Amino acid sequence: MISTKFAATWACLVFLLTAGCKIEYSFTGTTIDYNVTQTFSVANFFNDSGGGPANMGQLFTEELKDYFQRNTQLELIQNGGDLQLSGAITKYTITPQATVSNPNSNQPDRAGQMRITIGVEVDFVNLNNEEENSKRPYSFFQDYDPRTTSLLQVETELVEVIFENIIQDVFTSTVANW
Fold it and tell me: Where exactly are the structural domains of the chain?
């Protein structure tokens, strides 16, 4: 049986240890101090890759805004936020990954797998903590089988999956500090 004196001492110790913490915890793992950082802004990302769907820059910009709004308590403002994200899509490539040959045919080897790779450079500015500012590239890829589907059939879905992964990486490296 625990004495009430011991329990009161333990409760005071736990309170003192946790009361001095300035970083708030959330279920998304962010380390944002909402007393200091209250807003974020996202500049339009442009497609500087020379490839991909025509709306790719706008799609990335909107998905990035949505992700931050869903996973933080920050208010989205047009520009000048406490946290600022900007950049460009710098890479969009489609490359063969595996070849398939047909030994009973005079046909040349064909691609058995194709890979879409997208690279995005993100400039992150934290007006309240300049040590967290960064400019870095993010990249992700998805494969598809050109023997069973065409690029036109899967491109939109694959770009969305790639963007989801890049945006999660951006989020964790900026506001989750992983």
Answer: 38-174
DSSP 80-124: --SEEEEEEEEEEEEEEEEEE--TTSSSPPEEEEEEEEEEEEEEE
CA-based nearest residue to 172, from 67, 48, 54: 67
Identify the band that residue 137 occupies on the pLDDT scale cut at 50, 70 and 90: very high
Q: CA distances (Å), 9 to each of 17, 18, 83, 176, 177, in order? A: 12, 14, 41, 33, 34
CATH of domain 38-174: 3.30.160.150
Can you name the residues that pair with 39 across neighbouring β-strands?
75
Its pTM stands at 0.78
Question: 122 is written with which tokens?
Answer: 């993100």
114 touches 95 (CB < 8 A): yes
pLDDT of 130: 93
Q: Which amino acid would we find at residue 28? A: T
- Write the pLDDT tens digit of every residue in 19-55: 444 333 444 467 788 888 999 999 999 999 999 999 9
